[in-house]
Amino acid sequence: ESCKHMIVKMDCGLLRASVHCFLGHTKYYRYNKSTLSRTSSRSVCRLVMASSSNPHQHATSRVEIIAVGPHKCETIRLRPSNVNDTHINSKRIVIVPGNPGIVEYYEDFAAALWDRLEGEVDVVCLGLVGHAGRRGLFPKGKVWTMHDQVDHVRQYLSEHCADVNSVQLVGHSIGAYFALEGLRKHPNLVQNVVGVYPYLTNNPQSEEQRFCKFLVNNRVVVFIVAVLADLIGRVHLALRRFLLLGLTESFLMGPKAASLTAVAMTRYDAVQNMCHMGRTELDFLDQPPDWELLEAYAERVSFVFNKANDYWAPLWLKKDIEARLPMLNTYLDPEYDHMFCCSEQGSKDIARLLGEVVLPAQQINSLLLIPKPRSS
Q: What is the pTM (predicted TM-score) of this model?
Protein backbone atom coordinates (compact mmCIF):
# COMPACT_ATOMS: atom_id res chain seq x y z
CA GLU A 1 0.00 0.00 0.00
CA SER A 2 2.87 2.38 0.79
CA CYS A 3 4.27 1.68 -2.68
CA LYS A 4 1.00 2.76 -4.23
CA HIS A 5 1.02 5.97 -2.18
CA MET A 6 4.53 6.73 -3.31
CA ILE A 7 3.47 6.90 -6.92
CA VAL A 8 0.26 8.75 -6.24
CA LYS A 9 1.35 11.43 -3.78
CA MET A 10 4.18 12.89 -5.82
CA ASP A 11 3.93 15.86 -8.08
CA CYS A 12 6.69 13.99 -9.74
CA GLY A 13 3.99 11.61 -10.90
CA LEU A 14 1.39 12.72 -13.29
CA LEU A 15 -0.37 9.83 -11.60
CA ARG A 16 -1.73 12.27 -9.06
CA ALA A 17 -4.62 13.32 -11.20
CA SER A 18 -7.36 14.55 -8.93
CA VAL A 19 -9.29 16.41 -11.59
CA HIS A 20 -12.79 17.86 -11.24
CA CYS A 21 -15.13 17.57 -14.22
CA PHE A 22 -16.35 20.66 -15.99
CA LEU A 23 -20.08 20.86 -15.31
CA GLY A 24 -23.02 23.18 -15.68
CA HIS A 25 -23.70 26.05 -18.06
CA THR A 26 -21.38 27.24 -20.80
CA LYS A 27 -18.81 29.32 -18.90
CA TYR A 28 -16.72 32.35 -19.65
CA TYR A 29 -13.65 33.83 -18.06
CA ARG A 30 -13.81 37.21 -16.40
CA TYR A 31 -10.39 38.79 -15.96
CA ASN A 32 -9.19 40.90 -13.10
CA LYS A 33 -5.55 41.67 -12.30
CA SER A 34 -4.77 38.60 -10.26
CA THR A 35 -7.79 36.32 -10.55
CA LEU A 36 -9.97 34.69 -13.12
CA SER A 37 -13.41 33.81 -11.83
CA ARG A 38 -15.87 31.77 -13.81
CA THR A 39 -19.33 33.08 -14.46
CA SER A 40 -22.26 31.54 -16.32
CA SER A 41 -23.34 32.57 -19.77
CA ARG A 42 -26.25 34.45 -18.24
CA SER A 43 -23.96 36.92 -16.53
CA VAL A 44 -23.81 40.43 -17.92
CA CYS A 45 -20.06 40.74 -17.34
CA ARG A 46 -18.33 38.25 -19.59
CA LEU A 47 -15.49 38.02 -22.02
CA VAL A 48 -16.59 37.67 -25.61
CA MET A 49 -14.89 34.65 -27.10
CA ALA A 50 -13.78 34.02 -30.61
CA SER A 51 -14.86 30.97 -32.53
CA SER A 52 -13.15 27.88 -31.13
CA SER A 53 -11.52 26.93 -34.41
CA ASN A 54 -11.43 27.40 -38.11
CA PRO A 55 -13.64 24.62 -39.52
CA HIS A 56 -11.41 24.37 -42.58
CA GLN A 57 -8.33 23.54 -40.52
CA HIS A 58 -7.67 20.33 -38.64
CA ALA A 59 -4.94 19.51 -36.17
CA THR A 60 -2.77 16.64 -37.27
CA SER A 61 -0.48 15.26 -34.57
CA ARG A 62 1.63 12.22 -33.89
CA VAL A 63 4.41 11.28 -31.53
CA GLU A 64 7.72 11.91 -33.26
CA ILE A 65 11.25 10.99 -32.20
CA ILE A 66 13.79 13.79 -32.55
CA ALA A 67 17.43 14.19 -31.56
CA VAL A 68 18.29 16.88 -29.04
CA GLY A 69 22.01 17.03 -28.40
CA PRO A 70 23.32 13.52 -27.76
CA HIS A 71 19.91 12.14 -26.79
CA LYS A 72 16.59 11.34 -28.41
CA CYS A 73 13.20 12.33 -27.08
CA GLU A 74 9.53 12.17 -27.96
CA THR A 75 7.58 15.18 -29.20
CA ILE A 76 4.05 15.91 -30.31
CA ARG A 77 3.67 18.60 -32.97
CA LEU A 78 0.43 20.09 -34.19
CA ARG A 79 0.35 22.17 -37.32
CA PRO A 80 -2.31 23.25 -39.81
CA SER A 81 -2.50 20.82 -42.70
CA ASN A 82 -3.15 23.54 -45.28
CA VAL A 83 -0.21 25.90 -44.68
CA ASN A 84 3.46 25.57 -45.47
CA ASP A 85 6.38 25.33 -43.06
CA THR A 86 7.41 28.93 -43.70
CA HIS A 87 4.15 30.14 -42.20
CA ILE A 88 4.40 27.71 -39.29
CA ASN A 89 7.92 28.81 -38.39
CA SER A 90 6.78 32.38 -37.78
CA LYS A 91 5.56 31.50 -34.27
CA ARG A 92 5.78 28.42 -32.07
CA ILE A 93 4.40 27.45 -28.67
CA VAL A 94 6.45 24.83 -26.87
CA ILE A 95 4.80 22.93 -24.01
CA VAL A 96 7.31 21.81 -21.38
CA PRO A 97 5.76 19.04 -19.26
CA GLY A 98 6.07 18.26 -15.59
CA ASN A 99 7.33 15.00 -14.11
CA PRO A 100 7.07 12.45 -15.66
CA GLY A 101 7.62 14.34 -18.88
CA ILE A 102 5.73 12.01 -21.22
CA VAL A 103 4.21 13.97 -24.09
CA GLU A 104 1.11 11.82 -24.50
CA TYR A 105 -0.23 13.04 -21.17
CA TYR A 106 -0.41 16.47 -22.81
CA GLU A 107 -1.84 15.44 -26.17
CA ASP A 108 -5.36 16.71 -25.41
CA PHE A 109 -3.99 19.94 -23.97
CA ALA A 110 -1.78 20.60 -27.00
CA ALA A 111 -4.65 19.91 -29.41
CA ALA A 112 -7.05 22.12 -27.44
CA LEU A 113 -4.54 24.96 -27.31
CA TRP A 114 -3.92 24.68 -31.05
CA ASP A 115 -7.66 24.75 -31.61
CA ARG A 116 -8.15 27.81 -29.39
CA LEU A 117 -5.51 29.64 -31.40
CA GLU A 118 -7.35 28.67 -34.58
CA GLY A 119 -4.42 26.74 -36.02
CA GLU A 120 -2.34 29.85 -36.59
CA VAL A 121 0.52 28.73 -34.33
CA ASP A 122 2.82 25.73 -34.45
CA VAL A 123 2.30 23.86 -31.15
CA VAL A 124 4.97 21.44 -29.95
CA CYS A 125 5.04 19.36 -26.77
CA LEU A 126 8.63 18.52 -25.89
CA GLY A 127 9.18 15.27 -24.03
CA LEU A 128 11.77 15.25 -21.27
CA VAL A 129 14.90 13.21 -21.78
CA GLY A 130 14.60 9.80 -20.13
CA HIS A 131 10.79 10.00 -20.10
CA ALA A 132 8.89 8.26 -22.90
CA GLY A 133 5.75 6.31 -23.61
CA ARG A 134 7.69 3.49 -25.24
CA ARG A 135 10.50 1.13 -24.32
CA GLY A 136 14.01 1.19 -25.70
CA LEU A 137 14.39 4.90 -26.45
CA PHE A 138 16.98 5.51 -23.72
CA PRO A 139 19.93 3.54 -22.34
CA LYS A 140 18.81 0.98 -19.79
CA GLY A 141 19.58 2.00 -16.22
CA LYS A 142 20.33 5.63 -17.12
CA VAL A 143 18.62 8.32 -15.02
CA TRP A 144 18.47 12.09 -15.53
CA THR A 145 18.32 14.96 -13.05
CA MET A 146 16.32 18.19 -13.25
CA HIS A 147 19.53 19.96 -14.33
CA ASP A 148 19.78 17.57 -17.28
CA GLN A 149 16.27 18.63 -18.24
CA VAL A 150 17.25 22.31 -18.11
CA ASP A 151 20.07 21.57 -20.56
CA HIS A 152 17.67 19.52 -22.67
CA VAL A 153 15.16 22.39 -23.04
CA ARG A 154 17.94 24.86 -23.82
CA GLN A 155 19.43 22.55 -26.45
CA TYR A 156 16.05 22.06 -28.08
CA LEU A 157 15.64 25.82 -28.41
CA SER A 158 19.13 26.14 -29.90
CA GLU A 159 18.85 23.25 -32.34
CA HIS A 160 15.19 23.20 -33.34
CA CYS A 161 13.96 26.79 -32.99
CA ALA A 162 16.74 28.76 -34.68
CA ASP A 163 14.51 29.45 -37.71
CA VAL A 164 11.44 30.40 -35.66
CA ASN A 165 10.63 34.08 -35.36
CA SER A 166 9.27 33.88 -31.83
CA VAL A 167 8.78 31.14 -29.26
CA GLN A 168 6.35 31.04 -26.36
CA LEU A 169 7.05 28.50 -23.63
CA VAL A 170 4.23 26.95 -21.61
CA GLY A 171 5.60 25.04 -18.65
CA HIS A 172 3.54 22.86 -16.32
CA SER A 173 4.69 22.27 -12.72
CA ILE A 174 8.49 21.78 -12.75
CA GLY A 175 8.26 22.45 -16.49
CA ALA A 176 7.66 26.11 -15.58
CA TYR A 177 11.11 26.16 -13.98
CA PHE A 178 12.65 24.62 -17.11
CA ALA A 179 10.84 27.17 -19.29
CA LEU A 180 12.21 30.07 -17.22
CA GLU A 181 15.71 28.68 -17.65
CA GLY A 182 15.09 28.54 -21.39
CA LEU A 183 14.15 32.22 -21.28
CA ARG A 184 17.31 33.00 -19.30
CA LYS A 185 19.50 31.29 -21.91
CA HIS A 186 17.66 32.54 -25.03
CA PRO A 187 16.06 35.91 -24.19
CA ASN A 188 16.11 37.02 -27.82
CA LEU A 189 14.34 33.89 -29.04
CA VAL A 190 11.82 33.24 -26.26
CA GLN A 191 9.12 35.88 -26.38
CA ASN A 192 7.42 34.93 -23.13
CA VAL A 193 6.76 32.18 -20.61
CA VAL A 194 3.54 30.91 -19.05
CA GLY A 195 3.81 28.73 -15.96
CA VAL A 196 0.73 26.59 -15.31
CA TYR A 197 0.65 25.61 -11.62
CA PRO A 198 4.38 26.39 -11.40
CA TYR A 199 6.67 24.45 -9.06
CA LEU A 200 9.43 26.98 -8.34
CA THR A 201 10.28 26.34 -4.70
CA ASN A 202 9.48 23.84 -1.97
CA ASN A 203 6.47 24.40 0.24
CA PRO A 204 7.53 24.24 3.90
CA GLN A 205 3.88 24.31 4.96
CA SER A 206 3.06 21.04 3.18
CA GLU A 207 3.26 17.75 5.02
CA GLU A 208 2.47 15.94 1.76
CA GLN A 209 5.52 17.43 0.08
CA ARG A 210 7.76 16.50 2.99
CA PHE A 211 6.39 12.96 2.75
CA CYS A 212 7.16 12.88 -0.98
CA LYS A 213 10.72 14.01 -0.27
CA PHE A 214 11.13 11.25 2.30
CA LEU A 215 9.86 8.63 -0.15
CA VAL A 216 11.96 9.56 -3.18
CA ASN A 217 15.08 9.72 -1.01
CA ASN A 218 14.42 6.21 0.28
CA ARG A 219 16.22 4.15 -2.36
CA VAL A 220 14.80 0.86 -1.04
CA VAL A 221 11.20 2.01 -1.41
CA VAL A 222 11.91 3.39 -4.88
CA PHE A 223 13.49 0.09 -5.91
CA ILE A 224 10.51 -1.93 -4.62
CA VAL A 225 7.99 0.29 -6.41
CA ALA A 226 10.02 0.13 -9.65
CA VAL A 227 10.22 -3.68 -9.50
CA LEU A 228 6.50 -4.02 -8.79
CA ALA A 229 5.66 -1.65 -11.64
CA ASP A 230 7.88 -3.65 -13.99
CA LEU A 231 6.19 -6.90 -12.96
CA ILE A 232 2.78 -5.40 -13.67
CA GLY A 233 4.10 -4.24 -17.03
CA ARG A 234 4.86 -7.81 -18.07
CA VAL A 235 1.25 -8.99 -17.96
CA HIS A 236 -1.39 -8.50 -20.63
CA LEU A 237 -2.50 -4.90 -21.11
CA ALA A 238 -6.09 -5.68 -20.14
CA LEU A 239 -4.90 -7.16 -16.85
CA ARG A 240 -2.64 -4.16 -16.28
CA ARG A 241 -5.60 -1.85 -16.67
CA PHE A 242 -7.61 -3.98 -14.25
CA LEU A 243 -4.85 -3.96 -11.65
CA LEU A 244 -4.57 -0.17 -11.87
CA LEU A 245 -8.31 0.42 -12.10
CA GLY A 246 -8.74 1.37 -8.46
CA LEU A 247 -5.87 3.83 -8.67
CA THR A 248 -6.96 5.52 -11.88
CA GLU A 249 -10.63 5.72 -10.86
CA SER A 250 -9.77 7.08 -7.43
CA PHE A 251 -7.85 9.92 -9.01
CA LEU A 252 -10.38 10.57 -11.77
CA MET A 253 -8.05 9.95 -14.66
CA GLY A 254 -9.60 10.10 -18.07
CA PRO A 255 -9.56 6.93 -20.16
CA LYS A 256 -6.56 8.04 -22.26
CA ALA A 257 -4.44 8.96 -19.23
CA ALA A 258 -5.38 5.72 -17.47
CA SER A 259 -4.40 3.65 -20.49
CA LEU A 260 -1.16 5.58 -20.92
CA THR A 261 -0.28 5.01 -17.27
CA ALA A 262 -0.82 1.26 -17.71
CA VAL A 263 1.64 1.29 -20.62
CA ALA A 264 4.23 3.97 -19.87
CA MET A 265 4.56 3.84 -16.09
CA THR A 266 4.71 0.06 -15.64
CA ARG A 267 8.43 -0.10 -16.39
CA TYR A 268 11.38 -0.19 -14.01
CA ASP A 269 13.32 2.60 -15.73
CA ALA A 270 10.24 4.84 -15.97
CA VAL A 271 9.67 4.73 -12.21
CA GLN A 272 13.38 5.15 -11.46
CA ASN A 273 13.62 8.20 -13.73
CA MET A 274 10.48 9.76 -12.29
CA CYS A 275 11.72 9.31 -8.73
CA HIS A 276 15.33 10.32 -9.42
CA MET A 277 14.27 13.52 -11.12
CA GLY A 278 11.80 14.16 -8.29
CA ARG A 279 14.59 13.68 -5.77
CA THR A 280 16.76 16.31 -7.46
CA GLU A 281 13.79 18.69 -7.72
CA LEU A 282 12.94 18.46 -4.04
CA ASP A 283 16.58 18.80 -3.00
CA PHE A 284 17.49 21.70 -5.30
CA LEU A 285 14.30 23.74 -4.87
CA ASP A 286 14.69 23.85 -1.11
CA GLN A 287 15.45 27.55 -1.60
CA PRO A 288 13.47 30.69 -2.57
CA PRO A 289 12.48 31.30 -6.19
CA ASP A 290 14.97 33.12 -8.39
CA TRP A 291 13.54 36.59 -7.76
CA GLU A 292 16.29 38.23 -9.80
CA LEU A 293 15.33 36.25 -12.90
CA LEU A 294 11.62 36.85 -12.39
CA GLU A 295 12.15 40.58 -11.92
CA ALA A 296 14.32 40.83 -15.03
CA TYR A 297 11.60 39.32 -17.23
CA ALA A 298 8.46 40.20 -15.26
CA GLU A 299 6.65 41.65 -18.28
CA ARG A 300 7.29 38.45 -20.23
CA VAL A 301 6.19 35.93 -17.59
CA SER A 302 2.72 34.89 -16.43
CA PHE A 303 1.67 32.28 -13.88
CA VAL A 304 -1.59 30.40 -13.45
CA PHE A 305 -2.35 29.07 -9.97
CA ASN A 306 -5.18 26.87 -8.81
CA LYS A 307 -7.07 26.19 -5.61
CA ALA A 308 -5.39 26.31 -2.23
CA ASN A 309 -4.75 22.58 -1.80
CA ASP A 310 -2.11 22.47 -4.55
CA TYR A 311 1.01 22.13 -2.46
CA TRP A 312 3.28 22.30 -5.53
CA ALA A 313 2.04 25.75 -6.56
CA PRO A 314 0.66 27.18 -3.29
CA LEU A 315 -1.30 30.39 -3.06
CA TRP A 316 1.22 31.94 -0.68
CA LEU A 317 3.70 31.86 -3.58
CA LYS A 318 1.17 33.67 -5.77
CA LYS A 319 0.79 36.35 -3.07
CA ASP A 320 4.56 36.70 -2.72
CA ILE A 321 4.94 37.16 -6.47
CA GLU A 322 2.19 39.80 -6.57
CA ALA A 323 3.75 41.69 -3.66
CA ARG A 324 7.28 41.65 -5.07
CA LEU A 325 6.54 41.84 -8.80
CA PRO A 326 3.23 43.58 -9.58
CA MET A 327 4.25 43.77 -13.24
CA LEU A 328 4.13 39.96 -13.48
CA ASN A 329 0.62 38.75 -14.32
CA THR A 330 -0.87 36.04 -12.13
CA TYR A 331 -4.18 34.26 -12.58
CA LEU A 332 -6.28 32.01 -10.41
CA ASP A 333 -8.17 29.05 -11.79
CA PRO A 334 -10.22 27.49 -8.97
CA GLU A 335 -11.64 24.62 -11.00
CA TYR A 336 -8.85 22.08 -11.44
CA ASP A 337 -6.23 20.28 -9.42
CA HIS A 338 -2.53 20.09 -10.26
CA MET A 339 -2.77 17.37 -12.87
CA PHE A 340 -5.29 19.00 -15.22
CA CYS A 341 -3.74 17.27 -18.24
CA CYS A 342 -5.00 13.84 -17.16
CA SER A 343 -8.55 14.96 -17.95
CA GLU A 344 -9.75 15.79 -21.44
CA GLN A 345 -12.09 18.49 -20.13
CA GLY A 346 -9.42 19.90 -17.84
CA SER A 347 -7.04 20.12 -20.80
CA LYS A 348 -9.66 21.96 -22.85
CA ASP A 349 -10.51 24.45 -20.11
CA ILE A 350 -6.91 25.34 -19.26
CA ALA A 351 -6.20 25.68 -22.99
CA ARG A 352 -9.17 28.03 -23.23
CA LEU A 353 -7.82 30.11 -20.35
CA LEU A 354 -4.40 30.37 -21.98
CA GLY A 355 -5.64 30.89 -25.51
CA GLU A 356 -8.23 33.54 -24.76
CA VAL A 357 -6.84 35.45 -21.78
CA VAL A 358 -3.28 34.70 -20.68
CA LEU A 359 -1.41 34.58 -24.00
CA PRO A 360 -3.15 37.60 -25.57
CA ALA A 361 -2.51 39.70 -22.44
CA GLN A 362 1.10 38.55 -22.39
CA GLN A 363 1.60 39.42 -26.05
CA ILE A 364 0.39 42.95 -25.35
CA ASN A 365 2.82 43.23 -22.44
CA SER A 366 5.70 41.89 -24.51
CA LEU A 367 5.06 44.26 -27.40
CA LEU A 368 4.29 47.41 -25.45
CA LEU A 369 6.20 46.74 -22.22
CA ILE A 370 4.10 49.30 -20.40
CA PRO A 371 5.13 49.09 -16.74
CA LYS A 372 2.33 48.74 -14.25
CA PRO A 373 2.43 50.95 -11.13
CA ARG A 374 4.14 49.33 -8.20
CA SER A 375 2.33 49.21 -4.90
CA SER A 376 3.75 51.35 -2.15
A: 0.80
